[in-house]
Amino acid sequence: MKTRINELLISYREIYRGPNWIEVSLQPVLADVDSTLAFTDPPGNRNSIAKIVCHLVFIRQYLIKKLQGDLSTVIDQDKSFNTAAYGSHPETAWQNLQEELARTFQEITDLLPAAEPALLEKQVLPRDYSFDYLIAGIIQHEAYHTGQLEFLKKQLQQLALNK
Length: 163
Description:
By secondary structure, the chain is mainly alpha-helical. Helix content is about 65%, strand content about 0%. It is built from 7 helices and no strands. The longest helix is centred in the C-terminal third of the chain and has 31 residues, at about 130-160. It is globular, with a radius of gyration of 16 Å. The termini are far apart. The model has no long low-confidence stretch (mean pLDDT about 95).
């Protein structure tokens, strides 16, 4: 089972830093995003880059709390996209979001290797799934949103050029 923890850890690192099979990783996608682009609302009432990053941070914080044994933490989807907690000024909020994204990545990559292999089979209370399922799902979730962010970034950059 320690091998499974290592597999999950490798996949998580690859989605964040690369390289990986899907050829897009979160850290490089966000490297050239400034606060203006991050907080630009895309056409069609969709979430901004900053809101999606905030959502990823929120889900990571959920995982961290669960790994630390917090049974009361639940996911509030609406709250997960709320960037207000990171600052009212876009430059400050974007900087804080990026720092929290890096911090939560580091904390998860510190917690996983220290976990006992039996953790993966444990139920994530009060939910009806295991830690293995949760961690694998969060990796898939980050892969999905990384692709979304890459597409959104290109779309917003093109719209800015056409103005």
